[in-house]
Each structure stands twice: as structure tokens, then as C-alpha cells.
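Input set for joint prediction.
Command: fold jointly, output C-alpha cells.
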Amino acid sequence: MKLQIALDTLTIEECIMLLDEVKDYVDIIEVGTPFLLEEGNKPVKIFKERYPQLEVLADTKIMDAGEYEAEGAFKAGADIVTVLGVTNDATIEGALKAAKKYNGKVMMDMICVADMAKRTQQMDAMGVDYICCHTAFDIQETGKNPLDELVVINQNITNAKSAVAGGVKLETIDEIVAEGAGVIVVGGAISNAKDRIAMAKAIKEHMK
Amino acid sequence: MKLQIALDTLTIEECIMLLDEVKDYVDIIEVGTPFLLEEGNKPVKIFKERYPQLEVLADTKIMDAGEYEAEGAFKAGADIVTVLGVTNDATIEGALKAAKKYNGKVMMDMICVADMAKRTQQMDAMGVDYICCHTAFDIQETGKNPLDELVVINQNITNAKSAVAGGVKLETIDEIVAEGAGVIVVGGAISNAKDRIAMAKAIKEHMK
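C-alpha cells >
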């Protein structure tokens, strides 16, 4: 079970300060979508060079031009790219083609997917690496949490691993760990914590 | 009727060479999604400074964190951002809030939207500026073209304007112009043309 730290609103310098603190407790560094839109692939390159022992995920949320966009991220040093579950199968196939070429991985972001069970089965059969249930930031206030969707994903995967994102924090980690997931994504719960090292360590320990 | 040139695969320097050639015939410069993922907001800033008389669209394809991601693009100088039609309404509302603050515009990219008529009505009622039918690059080989969807959008808008993207070229411009659209997006048909100035001029003339 891997811990992925999502980096969205910090500068590159602030991220390095944070990662230097928590690098022993996280497995995957996520360069979040707004961070990519702001800085492009630069943080992907910098983090991969500075933390070669960790995986870097570019949260590209690919919707089209699957092969081209995935290739761009892999070339920059990403180990994992994200593709939206709501997109065309051809786009996912394109990203998988690029992943094969660069020995990278594809994580499906299932945000706004209507039929989670059916789409999970399709994605699993296509050979994606991770299928991630993701409660959108914009609807977290509604109290929706990703656990229900994680259960559905776990019930419908054979080869892919599940992942979970969206407001995950220390208070909710145990039920996720009990359900099981290949990757647990945590953002603000670590980066906004008073003691970030202690929080990353505590979350990681709950995952054992 | 505005002509939007989509820039996806060129470097910033190559884009400037192209834009210097065609700037009198285009109205909107689109910084395409792969370009944003590669370079971040840098080309948005550069193109807005160099071509202040043109609008700049950041093809952010926002799926979450609507206000935050739209604000980032508007701050960098974008006049228009794109949001995916398949996303949560809260994300669209967030982008619209940012647009109001920065006097910017929101274009909905209707790629992979299942019920085009219904979603168009919803988007129109929410107050978006443009609703764009978009044949994904990854499925253009199937022969699908955006005209059928453009008809549906035009039938279901009251306040928003329609836009059309995906493989538009000189040979298909007349039927789009006849149907009517607020914005026509052209990419490779201009950027890959033997004579790019002549092609941009010809397409623009067909739009009169």
C-alpha cells in the first residue's frame, strides 16, 4: 500500500521543503493538475532528479491526445500519468501505448464516472495499472467521501490496483486501509498539518 | 464569428513565428492542453504580451478545482479558459466565479458529453460564454465530425455562443459557417499548411 502526496498549491521551493521533510514516509510524489497548468513539466523533472527513490505522478487528467500527452509527461520523468475515466477508450489506449514505451504506469481518475462498476471492469480489461476513485475537491463540502466508490472498484478489478483520493486524512485512513487500496492519496492533511513530518509518519504507520 | 488558432505541438518560438505570420487573420490564440502541460502558463503570458490585440484561450480542460485553476490562467493573462462539460456543476460555477473576478470568459468543452442537448441547456442556464462541440483528436480517424453536435448546441442555446473544434479545415469550413458558430477552432489545417498565411486568410475569408 503506497502513500502518494498530492502537491497542488505550493511553489516548487515550498514543495522541496515539504518533500525533504516527509520523503521517508511517502512513496509517490504527485504533481497536481493546477501545479502542472502553472509550471508545466518543470516540477516533474526537478522532483524526479531530487528524489529518484520515489515515484513521480503527473496528474495530467488526460482527456484527449492520450499518447502524445502521456509521452510528454513520461519524457519529463514521470513514472505515472493520470487519464480521466470519462474519456474515449482510444485516449486510454494511447496513454497505455506511451506507458509501454517508457515503462511507465497509467492511473485512471474516475471522477464523474457515472457507472463505476462497469467502467472499472472496462479499464481493468484494458490493462491500466491503477483505478482511482476521486471525490472532486469542488464537491468535498457535500460530505461525499470516496470509500463507497473504493468498495465498488475493489469488487470489480482483477489485474489493476485501486487507488483513492479526495480529502483523505488521518481520521478516515483506517476505514480505507481496512477496505484495501494500492495507493492512498493525501494532500492537505499532510501539507497543511502543523507538524508535517509527524502527520506523514502517522498516516504511513496507519497503512501498515 | 471568430477564428481561433489551436497551438499544441510547436515550441514557443515556433508559435511566435506562426503567429507573426497569421495574426491579422485570427482572433483567438489557443494554448492547447499538451502545450500547457509542457510549459505551464508561460506561453499564455508571452502571447498575451506580444499580441495584446488578440484574445488568448488557455485550454485548461478543467475537471476539478474550477475557481483555483481558472484563476491561475486568468492571472497569467488568459481571456478565456476551458472547462469540461462532463464535470460537476460546482466546478463550472467555480470557473465562472473566477471569470467574473477577472473579466474573463468560460468555454465549455463538450468532449464525451453523453446528452448534448440536455447538458447544453444546463450550461447555457449557468451563464457560460461558449459551448464547444469537440471531436476528440483520438477519434477523428473514425470519420466523426463535429457538425452534427454543433447543430444540437445551436438548437439549445439562448445566451451562450457555440464553438466548434476537431479537425476543422478549409474543405469543411463552409458547412460550419452555414450552420453558424461564435468561434471556429482550427489547428493543423493552418499550422501544417504549406502556405500558412494563405491558408489562414482563406479560412478567415470563408467565415465572412
